[in-house]
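RECORD TYPE: inverse folding
INPUT: structure tokens
STRUCTURE:
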């Protein structure tokens, strides 16, 4: 059972473990709940984690996050554990094979874009990690509700423009902002969530 946090937005719930979370995470004992707790909004510089976030954003274009997230494990298997070097080495035959893989979203353009993006990650300068760092948003006041969350920002537009100039594909401002959220360049956990920037540190450690 989950309940709303008294006196707070309905965009925050209390899960079975007693922790308040963004309502989209559910009770916190599911794969999506663990993603909310451990990944989304957590700053990472890990290459494979950043490549995963970029790839999920590519496949989310025109679709819902729930559809893409539901295939997260299948994408990880299809794209060789999101190992950038291994994906960059994939051939046209590999792309043909993945187009037939019913466990993932079989969009040839997006599959090829993922291979191309891995190659861009290997060769582009400044690196994806360096670019992400330059767009970090450090704020002390968390968004008050999900309605306050943008789908894009001027920073995301500038970031997307730089990525496109480096050869990245399917990186519009909306997908780039989702990437920024996923890798913690921006923390969009809403006020009241235990992952929010303004959640009391003493309460978070309980």
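DESIGNED SEQUENCE:
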């Amino acid at each position: 059972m989950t309940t709303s946090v008294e006196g707070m937005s309905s965009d925050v719930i209390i899960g079975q473990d007693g922790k308040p979370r963004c309502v989209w995470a559910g009770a916190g004992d599911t794969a999506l709940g663990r993603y909310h707790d451990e990944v989304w909004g957590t700053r990472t510089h890990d290459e494979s984690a950043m490549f995963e976030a970029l790839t999920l954003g590519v496949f989310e274009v025109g679709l819902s996050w729930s559809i893409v997230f539901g295939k997260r494990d299948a994408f990880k298997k299809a794209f060789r554990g999101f190992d950038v070097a291994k994906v960059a080495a994939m051939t046209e035959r590999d792309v043909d094979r993945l187009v037939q893989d019913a466990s993932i979203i079989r969009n040839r353009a997006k599959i090829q874009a993922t291979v191309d993006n891995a190659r861009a990650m290997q060769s582009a300068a400044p690196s994806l990690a360096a670019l992400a760092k330059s767009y970090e948003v450090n704020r002390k006041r968390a968004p008050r509700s999900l309605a306050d969350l943008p789908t894009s920002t001027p920073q995301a537009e500038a970031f997307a423009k730089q990525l496109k100039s480096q050869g990245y594909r399917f990186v519009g401002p909306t997908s780039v902002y989702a990437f920024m959220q996923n890798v913690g360049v921006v923390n969009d956990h809403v006020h009241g969530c235990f992952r929010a920037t303004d959640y009391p540190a003493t309460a978070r450690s309980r």
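NOTES: Confidence is low (pLDDT under 50) at residues 1-5.
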